[in-house]
Amino acid sequence: MSEDPGVLRRHLDRERRARQAAETIAEEKTREAFQANESLKRLNEDLERQVAERTAELRAARDEAVAAQKELQRSNAELENFAYSVSHDLREPLRMVHSYLELIRHRANADLPPQVADYLDRAIHTTERMQGMVRGLLEYARVTTHGSPPAPVSADACVKAAVENLELGLEEARVSITRDPLPAVCADSEQLARLFQNLISNAVKYRHPGRRPAIHVAARKRDDGMASFRVSDNGRGLAAEDKERAFQLFQRPGDNTAIDGTGIGLAVCKRMVERHGGSIDVESTPGEGATFCFTLPLAEGDAAEGGSAAG
Length: 311
Ligand SMILES: Nc1ncnc2c1ncn2[C@@H]1O[C@H](COP(=O)(O)OP(=O)(O)OP(=O)(O)O)[C@@H](O)[C@H]1O
Ligand SMILES: [Mg+2]
Fold this sequence. Notes:
This protein has helices at about 5-110, 115-145, 155-165, 165-170, 190-205, 245, 265-275, 300-305, and strands at about 150-155, 175-180, 185, 215-220, 225-235, 280-285, 290-295.
């Protein structure tokens, strides 16, 4: 059977057109793919450039922060050394002034007109106060310049040492002190004893006039490797607006005219705690009492056990 040439031609034409159409589509797809690939490449290059720029910016910011921190550490150390030598060097002339004033009082007291004797008493009292401030400043500066390196220490033993140092005053005021078992921490033991001593002596000093002072020391092991301590009293407490000031050097918020003090104790506590990488704060209901809360790193063994040492 012979094929009709017209039909064959039409068939071949259709095939050619279909092939051409397929080739055009394929070309278009290839072009599109190429373009997509090109824009992806550009996008990648853009992204890489942006990442490189950002990394350089971050690196520069980090270098700046490290340099600023170093400078801060240097100037802090300089300031501490300055405070240390000034307070150290002031002690001797102050002691001399005090001794001479005492000598005058001793020699001439009976002959002095009452008003002059009163001036003399005030001058002596002021030098004593100044001696207390200089001693406090020296202690404050010594926290970082003369501290021992932190080592595992029993917080229980440090509370005991603090209580022994305060024994007479505690007996006199009939203070009741209780404590839960406390964990071992990584700290300068002398400073930790001093910290408890400052907090306990404050709890007695700022007691409520109508109550027998009661102090409780508790601690809890935290999951982040820190121990959180609480020293609670049933004293007069602190107003909310006084809490921050209480930790500042030479600040004595509230009515303290009848109570001796220089306003250094809590500033020293804060400095000691921060030197160990912890923080200190106070919770209080005025008239009911205050709880001083601070954190310190747990000693390795105690940190590994986890859980709670005491309530
Ligand atoms: N347990 C407390 N209850 C109530 N107020 C307190 C307590 N502890 C401290 N304060 C307040 O915080 C202030 C600062 O205390 P801080 O121990 O620094 O100084 P200070 O006791 O006045 O003098 P010192 O330098 O002799 O310790 C106190 O003057 C008092 O107003
Ligand atoms: Mg005090």
